[in-house]
């Protein structure tokens, strides 16, 4: 395994910049997930690390080697794609062995590696089957096995679960994380699915329009988003945003939301009087409280069994409250709403940057 160091990487396709001075470090043995909306540059970044795309500027180091201009075959990486890319005329065992035969690995070593990968991924009963005889999840495990047998320094995954249904995605996601924990290999994983990002990553990197918006441990990024984009991208249902304005002197400021709502933001925010802000509230940070001065109209109710989401319309905008599955609310009624103390996120309305003071918890 080897660390990855990306420095000021840039890439354009024609006049369109796709990556803009991206700098990223992945420690040896780490699991880094690149997440973001379609077109944000995450797959292009992965392909530059793999050598499938040549960057316009910057560098890529794998371990001690500068691999920026090396061919993919010389980088000692293995890649698992969205499409399984299995040879349909070869059995599972032959698919696992094919790349090693091309590299002229000895038959005994090929047999040993195939056996180890097959046991690790539970493929032993499938070795004599052809790809057409496998389910989507089984095919993806074969694709991962083909990468494992190479013993590379680095594993790269390009949206490997996007072709699977929801139940299979959940199952294979666990397989991927279990595989990483057993092999201790450095991995970079691309996805647009925030659940995959949150559950798989040691380091989660959120990209937007070719820039890294924020990188860090998944729960840290979720709890302390650096920008409005990150806050809105992570979470389902997504964070609600209410337009507000700071009133009062420093140390005693409050945020006015609409004509009727007031919010005490707490001391961790830098809020000069008159500042236009957006107040972010996640569904789990909003509750119904008839004693509250906030009143809102219930627009839509989503009852999911274990929990219920109430979509609300208030004077400051729309927001969502996550309630217990036993909650009884109906569309059209007016309810009291309360934001849990200390749980609001505040962002500068102009820049979208968090108003949280540096070092604040």
Structural commentary:
The protein is an alpha+beta fold. 24% of the residues lie in helices and 34% in strands. The protein has helices at residues 42-50, 92-102, 107-121, 136-148, 166-183, 194-200, 218-223, 228-233, and strands at residues 4-13, 16-26, 31-35, 57-62, 65-66, 77-80, 154-158, 186-191, 203-208, 211-216, 240-247, 254-257, 261-263, 276-281, 286-288, 294-303, 307-314, 317-324, 334-339, 345-348. The strands form four sheets. Strands 6-7-8-3-9-10 form a six-stranded mixed sheet, with helices on both faces. Strands 13-12-11-14-20 form a five-stranded antiparallel sheet. Strands 15-19-16-17-18 form a five-stranded antiparallel sheet, with no helix packed on it. It is elongated, with a radius of gyration of 24 Å. It starts with a strand and ends in a 13-residue tail after the last strand. The mean pLDDT is 91.
Features of the shown structure:
361 residues, alpha+beta, 6-stranded mixed β-sheet, 5-stranded antiparallel β-sheet, 8 helices, 34% strand
Strand elements, count: 20
Element order, helices and strands? Answer: EEEHEEEHHHEHEHEEHHEEEEEEEEEE
- Please describe the biggest sheet, giving its number of strands, its sense, and whether it closes into a barrel: 6 strands, mixed
Mean pLDDT rating: 91
Which overall shape is indicated by the principal axes computed on the Cα atoms?
A: elongated
Number of helices: 8
User: How large is the radius of gyration?
Assistant: 24 Å
Assess the beta-strand content as a share of residues: 25-35%
Cα(first) to Cα(last) distance is 34 Å
Helix/strand/pairing category:
alpha+beta
Give helix % range: 10-25%
Low-confidence stretches: none
Strand order of the largest sheet: 6-7-8-3-9-10
């Amino acid at each position: 395994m080897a660390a990855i160091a990306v420095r000021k990487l840039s890439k354009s396709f024609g006049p369109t910049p796709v990556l803009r001075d991206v700098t990223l470090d992945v420690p040896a043995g780490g699991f880094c997930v690149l997440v973001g909306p379609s077109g944000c540059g995450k797959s292009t970044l992965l392909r530059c690390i793999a050598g499938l795309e040549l960057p316009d500027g910057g560098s890529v180091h794998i371990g001690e080697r500068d691999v920026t201009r090396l061919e993919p075959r010389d980088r000692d990486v293995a890649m698992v794609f969205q499409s399984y890319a299995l040879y349909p005329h070869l059995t599972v065992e032959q698919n696992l062995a094919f790349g090693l035969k091309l590299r002229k690995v000895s038959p005994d070593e090929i047999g040993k590696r195939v056996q180890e990968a097959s046991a690790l991924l539970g493929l032993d009963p499938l070795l004599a089957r052809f790809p057409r005889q496998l389910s989507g999840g089984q095919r993806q495990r074969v694709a991962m096995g083909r990468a494992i047998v190479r013993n590379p320094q680095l594993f790269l995954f390009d949206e490997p679960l996007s072709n699977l249904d929801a139940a299979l995605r959940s199952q294979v996601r666990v397989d991927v994380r279990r595989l990483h924990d057993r092999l201790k290999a450095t991995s970079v994983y691309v996805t647009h699915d925030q659940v995959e990002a949150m559950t798989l990553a040691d380091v989660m990197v959120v990209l937007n329009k070719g820039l890294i918006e924020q990188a860090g441990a998944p729960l840290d990024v979720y709890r302390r988003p650096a920008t409005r984009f990150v806050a809105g991208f992570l979470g389902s249902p997504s964070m609600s945003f209410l337009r507000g304005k700071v009133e009062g002197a420093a140390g005693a400021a409050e945020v006015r939301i609409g004509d009727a709502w007031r919010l005490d933001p707490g001391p961790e925010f830098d809020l000069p009087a008159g500042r236009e802000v957006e107040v972010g509230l996640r569904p789990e940070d909003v509750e119904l409280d008839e004693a509250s001065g906030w009143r809102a109209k219930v627009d839509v109710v989503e009852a999911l069994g274990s929990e219920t989401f109430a979509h609300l319309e208030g004077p400051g905008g729309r927001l969502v409250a996550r309630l217990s599955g036993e909650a009884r609310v109906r569309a059209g009624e007016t309810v009291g709403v309360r934001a849990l103390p200390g749980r609001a996120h505040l962002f500068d309305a102009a820049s979208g940057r968090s108003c949280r003071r540096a070092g604040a918890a």
